[in-house]
Specification:
heterodimer, A: about 800 residues, eleven-stranded mixed β-sheet, 21 helices, 29 strands, about 30% helix, about 15% strand, B: about 110 residues, mainly alpha, about 0% strand, elongated
């Protein structure tokens, strides 16, 4: 018999061991949104290991498998890598390896987002987002694009080498080396695949060419009828200054334009929220001819506006092999430089906003949805099963129906989750350019190596989506711009409203030939530019879109300034990138003010009135006038339209700013100014006054009598959030000028994601900065070291080395990759 | 004695072994050198508390505590020192419990 004493001792020991084991288990386990606390906090493998030493510049020699020759990577003082390889394979291998070192988690999470695989690591709360991406056909599109990539030997080699480089980096990691976000979310990096590069392209297409007003506009048509809809949503803006200068001749014979189909109006039964106009994604680029520059060679500038995040969407890199030497920004997760320059040329992009996403009403034979009506007969659908893995749960199997147009994104209202875009109609098939086989990387492969205008034109023809205004200049003194992409051949306004999917006349009718995409080379005015406005004047024979990404104000300001510019230097263009002058205010401020009567104002109103009178029309951080104007206009806009378009449970499209301006300037007695919810009949002047009173009252109420807190920079919230939206990992709120409709388009969390100015000449000189840093590690000093330069509106001189052993004081360290 | 052994072995092992190896070290060390359960617990606790604090400080000081400050913010802690304290306490708890277990196992097998 075991003595009680001994039994007690054993019990105590076992209990103590059990408690210890449970404790360790609990510390290793993820509960809810918290990281596993011991795994994350322990200093051996946890987050403390991600803390980098300041000025961590050390030379390294790394031996890697898969390399063919030695690669030398030189890092400058901003830790920007300058990669020198002896062939293209090694070049892109090294680009993959080096990019992964700095941005592995960003690459992983972007791929997961695009491919609908977030729930696998996060859990059921993001299942709706995943389903949306799957059902939009992101995976289907990426598979098709990968096919295009693999058919092209040069791009195939590059993408595969890039993939190898990333994977060699991943395989060399141990748990303590994982980027901090892997530790927070408690998962491990997985191998990169070539299709991930295609997913990145799909993500760009989703951001830049994945929206549609078709559904809302179709609702407008039902609600207001064709006459009103056509009047309020015209096919060409009242105010415009197109990208291809007005009057440019089209030197081609256009294809016959397809005949419009019999009208069809889709039936909609769904209920959704409304949304206002969204204008925070846009970009600027311009290039001036040698005749306008101080040194006689062209200068090019580009600043793409995107959501600003840490880490940045861009990664600066110099790529050099015997076949290429190029500097610029790349997309982490894709080989090549996307925006940049080489010794002879430079190029940049802004978004076109082409109508390349169309909805087709599908008529199914019966509830099984196996057949649909098209071309006067029943046709079979394809079904694609999407398997979505969910952390902590069983996988979800989601069946998506495909017609010949594309996926039926939601075939019943129940599928549509909270996370889905409200602009997606239920029961419609999606025809989207991003589903097509494509090889966009070829364009960048060729642009990186381009020497002249002919090379530029050749590069553009491989580009499908998202369509971009490709701006270009070269050392032979050519400047050019081309709104470019694969544009479907359509009848006018085909896709402005939802289309009848049973009528072949509504299908896309082929493509606009590449050489007939709008383009201009060396226009007389001595510059080319774009800021997301209309591609052309109304003489262009083809339909690209009924409305482009942004109203014309930024473009107009750029063109006004460039018209008068002489002897320009890179600094002149840098200053223009920071310009905050509002063409919108120039157009409407006087018209608004004339309705106000200062003799009948309160003290507060009079102060505001005087501030507006004095205002220089600039959206600088210290301007009070900018604040009052912006809020006043927004109130005026909303008070004009809300009662007619802000209807509950119906997703209507509001008339845009341009149409509202036309009403204000040319039709002040318009019925649209009448607030239908009041017994009296209002005109423009009444709405202007009510909006003004409301604006001043609100400012006084929220900020007190006029004081420094009314300044634009303090009213506007500007912040660069971390990609994962983690508190503490972003920049925090800071004071900044700029607005979405001025050149310096810093607005909330979006704005110039990369600013670049390149002066061509006997020796090319590049300048650039993005808000953030090269490293994606929040524990690195190179996570946000360039933010201040960006905030100050300055640019860094970009170090463009001609050989790996070129001497430069700016080189801080060297990594040598050699064959294992 | 026990304290010093656990401290040194924990720091030394941290460069090659996972963090929970420290629990095994404390357990085994207490089996050999542990005396009373109270002493064992506090030796294990203090050893891991200090070892983890040292290991974390080695990383965070050259970093000017910038990452620790960001993470503290993320967990809504007012400053990084509190994060260090939490880290060290977790280590201490594991070390203390493991050492206590070690000494209790030893006792269970002792004749008296």
């Amino acid at each position: 018999m075991v003595p009680v004493n001994t039994a007690m001792k054993i019990f105590k020991a076992v209990l103590s061991i059990a408690i210890t084991l449970v404790l360790i288990w609990a510390l290793q386990t993820k509960f809810g949104n918290l990281p596993p606390i011991g795994k994350f906090l322990n200093p051996v493998t946890g987050f403390w290991q991600n803390a980098e030493i300041k000025n961590a510049f050390a030379d390294e020699n790394l031996k890697l498998t898969g390399l063919q020759h030695k690669v030398i990577i030189r890092y400058d003082e901003n830790r920007i890598p300058h990669i020198f390889a002896q062939n293209d394979h090694d070049l892109y291998y090294a680009q993959g390896y080096i990019t992964a070192r700095d941005r592995l988690w960003e690459m992983d999470i972007q791929t997961r987002e695009a491919s609908g695989r977030l729930a696998e690591i996060i859990g059921p709360e993001v299942l709706g987002t995943d389903e949306y991406h799957r059902r939009m056909g992101m995976v289907y599109g990426a598979e098709n694009t990968l096919r295009g990539i693999m058919k092209d030997p040069q791009v195939k080699t590059s993408v595969e080498a890039y993939t190898d480089g990333i994977n060699n980096y991943i395989h060399g990691l141990s748990a303590k080396d994982y980027p901090i976000e892997f530790k927070l979310l408690d998962y491990t990096p997985e191998d990169w695949k070539p299709i991930n590069c295609a997913f990145l392209l799909k993500l760009m297409s989703e951001t830049l060419a994945g929206g549609s007003d078709q559904f809302a506009l179709t609702n407008n048509l039902k609600h207001f009828g064709a006459k009103v809809t056509n009047d309020l949503f015209p096919d060409y803006p009242f105010l415009e200054d197109p990208i291809i200068p007005k009057g440019t001749k089209w030197n081609f014979k256009p294809l016959p334009i397809p005949k419009p189909s019999a009208d069809f109006l889709a039936q909609m039964t769904d209920s959704i929220k409304t949304r206002g106009e969204k204008e925070d994604i846009g970009s600027n680029n311009w290039a001036i001819a040698g005749s306008k520059s101080a040194n006689g060679y062209p200068i090019l500038a580009n600043d793409p506006h995107l959501n600003l995040t840490y880490p940045s969407i861009w990664y600066q890199v110099q790529l050099s092999s015997p076949a290429v030497n190029v500097y610029g920004v790349s997309l982490p997760g894709a080989p090549f430089v996307i925006i940049g320059f080489n010794q002879k040329t430079s190029w940049g992009v802004t978004n076109v906003g082409a109508d390349v996403l169309d909805w087709y009403q599908v008529h199914f034979k019966d509830g099984s949805k196996n057949q649909y009506w098209y071309n006067n007969r029943w046709n079979s659908v394809n079904k694609r099963i999407e398997v979505i893995y969910v952390r902590g749960q069983k996988p979800v199997y989601d069946t998506v129906i495909y017609t010949h147009h594309g996926p039926v994104v939601y075939d019943n209202a129940a599928q549509k989750s909270e996370n889905a875009g409200e602009n997606i109609p239920v029961g419609n098939a999606l025809r989207w350019i991003a589903h097509d086989e494509s090889d966009e990387f070829k364009t960048f492969y060729l642009l990186n190596r381009g020497k002249n205008y002919a090379d530029y034109r050749e590069a553009l023809k491989y580009y499908t989506a998202p369509a971009q205004n490709f701006i270009f200049d070269d050392a032979d003194n050519d400047i050019a711009i081309t709104p470019n992409g694969k544009f479907p051949l359509k009848f006018k306004d085909q896709g402005k409203f939802i289309l009848d999917g049973s009528d072949p006349a509504n299908d896309w009718h082929g493509w606009i030939p590449y050489e007939q995409n709008p383009t201009v080379k060396n226009p007389e005015r001595g510059f080319v530019s774009s800021a997301n406005q209309s591609s052309t004047d109304q003489t262009y024979p083809y339909y690209i879109a009924w409305q482009f990404d942004s109203p014309y104000e930024r473009g107009k300001r750029i063109n006004d300034r460039l018209t008068t510019m002489k002897n320009a230097t890179p600094d002149s263009l840098r200053l223009l990138q920071g310009d905050t002058y509002s063409i919108h205010a120039q157009n409407v401020l006087d018209a608004l003010l004339k309705y106000l009567d200062p003799t009948k104002m309160s003290v507060d109103q009079l102060q505001a009135y005087n501030a507006l009178k004095k205002w220089n029309k600039r959206f600088d951080a210290g301007e009070i006038g900018a604040t009052i104007f912006e809020l006043w206009w927004n109130n005026f806009y909303r008070m004009t339209w809300d009662d007619k378009f802000g209807i509950k449970n119906t997703h209507l499209l509001y008339p845009n700013r341009d149409r509202t301006i036309k009403l204000l300037l040319t039709d002040p007695k318009s019925k649209w100014f009448d607030n239908t919810q009041t017994p009296v009949i209002e005109t423009c002047g009444d709405i202007v006054n009510i909006a003004f009173t409301h604006t001043v009252d609100k400012l006084v109420k929220e900020k007190g009598k006029m004081n420094n807190n009314w300044q634009w920079g303090r009213v506007k919230h500007t912040e660069i959030a971390s990609l994962a939206q983690l508190p503490g990992f972003g920049s925090g709120n800071f004071i900044s000028g700029g607005a979405s409709a001025v050149i310096n388009a810093i607005s909330g969390g979006s704005g110039p994601s990369w600013r670049m100015v390149v002066q061509l000449g006997p020796v090319v000189k590049g300048y650039g900065v993005f808000p953030g840093g090269e490293s994606g590690n929040p524990g690195s000093f190179y996570y946000d070291n360039m933010l201040q330069t960006w905030k100050d509106g300055k640019l860094n001189e970009l170090l463009f080395l001609q050989s790996p052993d070129e001497n430069s004081k700016r080189i801080k360290s060297t990594i040598t990759l050699s064959v294992k | 004695m026990l304290f010093l052994i656990i401290l040194i072995l924990t720091i030394a092992s941290s460069f090659i072994l996972p963090w929970w190896a420290a629990a095994i070290i404390a357990f085994l060390a207490a089996m050999y050198w542990g005396k009373t359960s109270g002493k064992a617990f506090w030796s294990g606790f203090a050893a891991l508390f200090i070892a983890w604090a040292i290991l974390a400080l080695i990383k965070t000081i050259p970093n000017e505590n910038s990452l620790a400050t960001r993470v503290a913010h993320l967990f809504r802690l007012p400053n990084w020192l509190l994060l260090l304290l939490v880290t060290a306490l977790i280590g201490g708890l594991v070390g203390g419990m493991a050492a206590l277990s070690g000494v209790l196992v030893k006792r269970a097998f002792q004749k008296k």
